[in-house]
Design goal:
mainly alpha, two-stranded antiparallel ribbon, 6 helices, 2 strands
């Protein structure tokens, strides 16, 4: 399985956490390759999650600051999800960004 994961372009392995990370664009390819390995079960992410991640990783608009992007995302978040956020998740800050 490790060789299969290594074969994906754009993958990253964190030896400290022992986690593999992939760009969302590689999701389908990764699932397809993992399904080809006998005894490995890999479940794809729901389509809505893929779409949300694809939107989040798209190039940000140069006209908006990170704070405005987060504020807009919070406004679009369904109420039941916004209510489920922990306080630290609601208080996202950008100490290195310029206003």
């Amino acid at each position: 399985m490790i060789e299969t994961l290594k074969s994906l372009n754009g993958r990253a392995y964190d030896p400290k956490s022992k986690e593999w990370n992939f760009p969302v664009e590689l999701h389908n390819e990764a699932i397809k390759k993992l399904h080809a390995i006998p005894g490995v079960e890999a479940k794809p992410l729901p389509t809505t999650v893929i779409k949300a991640l694809s939107t989040e990783t798209a190039a940000p608009s140069s006209s908006q600051s990170p704070q405005k992007d987060v504020a807009e995302a919070m406004r679009r978040l369904p109420e039941h999800l916004a209510n489920a956020l922990m306080p630290f998740q609601q208080e996202v800050g950008f100490p290195n960004s310029k206003p």
